[in-house]
Amino acid sequence: MFILYRYLAKAIALPTLAVTAVALALFSTTRFIRLLERAVENGIGSEVFTVLLLNMPTYLAEVLPLGLYLGVILGIGKLYSENEITAMISSGVPNRVLYIGVLVPAAVTTLILWAIMLWLAPLSSSKADEMWRILAAQTSYDLIQTGEFNDIDKNGKILYVEGQSDQGDLSGLFFGDPARMQFIWSNSATLIQNQDDKARYFRFNQGIQFIGVPGSGSNNENGNDNNNSNSSRSTFESQSIQISSPQPQGKPNKAHLMTNAELLAQDTRWNITELIYRLLFPLIALVLAILGLAFARTKPRQGRFTMVLPAIIAYSVYTVMLSGSIRPVYRSQAPYFTAMWWVHLLFLALAGLIILWPQLTFRLRRTR
């Protein structure tokens, strides 16, 4: 029997790994594009790859159940289409061998999901969030290169710097804001931050400001305050220019970044629901394995992929119902006991009905 169990496990494992790898690549590519868009807005460079890698455990937890599901359908479906399951049953091998051969990989997958969701995903996601906040808190000021024109925000403002001290003070500056047609030449500048709204400003010292289309104004001999209808030119001792918008007040919910102990310590509705989600979601692997076994059964003259489309539809409905059952609990619109478990039981019953349907119809025909 051990040889059969190993054979079944191998038949399931190979397509599971292949499907999981492809799904993870597609899923992480989609998330990477979103991260890249945010990185461009915040002036973040190659560190975005580190953030992506730290989020990989979370992505894996989302695609691994699908990989197992399709792995069971493709692996066991191949055995059905090649009459290997029929040969096993004809040789006196009981059906429970097939069920155990499917449930063992499902149990291992469930344990992996619990390890990811209860420990690895919160740990890595919290580090990714911390790293992202540190990087996002930096403006392009922190990445300024002397002797080059630097983009300092996503609105097109540019800054040219001749020198930068070890303390971060800048010297020999040219600042341009094409949107406002504002241009500043300054001897020195420093970065300041408003402690109330966290907005950042450049404070330029001892410089000249020009507003309007360059070349449209005229200068007097002293070069001071001579304006026409299109432009103005002035000198200043000190002037501040905002380069980043105030940060929004309030802190978004970070329950998915907390450890289990932190969720229990802060006994809020959202935290308890997050803990329930971490405990109940991994059971999807067991249910999908049995459901996959039900969809894997094909007749000899049917193709291996006959039931893949109905299986994908069932998976989509399953995941949508799981999400729909937990979302009202997060929002305090439903009690805790309505979260997820009944959806698992519903689709477990559906899988059992599909598996037992040929026997039920056979008995009904015999009674007639």
UniProtKB/TrEMBL annotation:
Its membrane topology: Multi-pass membrane protein
Keyword Cell inner membrane: yes
Compositional bias ranges of the Low complexity kind: 216-248
A GO biological process held by the record: transmembrane transport
Pfam families: LptF_LptG
This protein's UniProt keywords: Cell inner membrane, Cell membrane, Membrane, Transmembrane, Transmembrane helix, Transport
Keyword Ribosomal protein among record annotations: no
Subcellular compartments: Cell inner membrane
The organism's place on the tree of life at top rank: Bacteria
GO cellular component terms listed in the entry, alphabetical order: ATP-binding cassette (ABC) transporter complex
Residues spanning the membrane: 7-28, 48-76, 97-121, 275-296, 308-327, 339-358
Family designation: Belongs to the LptF/LptG family.
Function: Part of the ABC transporter complex LptBFG involved in the translocation of lipopolysaccharide (LPS) from the inner membrane to the outer membrane.
The protein's assembly and partners: Component of the lipopolysaccharide transport and assembly complex. The LptBFG transporter is composed of two ATP-binding proteins (LptB) and two transmembrane proteins (LptF and LptG).
Identification of the protein by name: Lipopolysaccharide export system permease protein LptF
Species assigned in the record: Reinekea forsetii
